[in-house]
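Assess this one:

_____
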Amino acid sequence: MSGENEKKERPSPRFHGRVENTGQRCAQPGCDEPGEFRAPPAEGTAGPDGPRPYRWMCLEHVRAFNSRYNFFDGMSVDEIHDAQRPLAGWERETRAFAHGGADRPPRWTDFSDPMDAIGARFRRETAPERSDGKPLSGQDRASLKVLGLAADADRMALRRRYSELVRRYHPDRNGGDRAHETMLQQVIAAYQQLRQAPAFA
């Protein structure tokens, strides 16, 4: 019988907020019971330097505190009315998580995107750059720029333009002048990259 009474007096901490072994005494004057339950400070829950510490109370005195607690204490009639409305708190606009099936593009002023990796993704999703719908990466676009080709160029146009530029910049075509050697290397690298890209497969 005594075991059952003890269970009733010491409810499960899972449902009653008991914090054992706090080392605190009940904040109620004259009470020497352990303070195992938190309650807001008498002056309120916030001060000029941040939240004030909780008061710790025994079960009996925290029950008495809770029975006197009034959420609306200190509010005007209009504030109480607003707090009791069924839609109170739902007026705030929330950020949309999706837009047309995809995330919203970020504001370009917020970061640097030198390889155009993020920008390319959003351009592909909003408007394909090629009539065949094949994707172009940032590197694809950079290589097309080196070769002077449009985004919609096909494999045959790629080969034709490559041959034309190699003839133009090769030293054998310029009387041994190697001034265009750097440009020739860029043309070769761009062609090698594009011929393996999905858009030109």
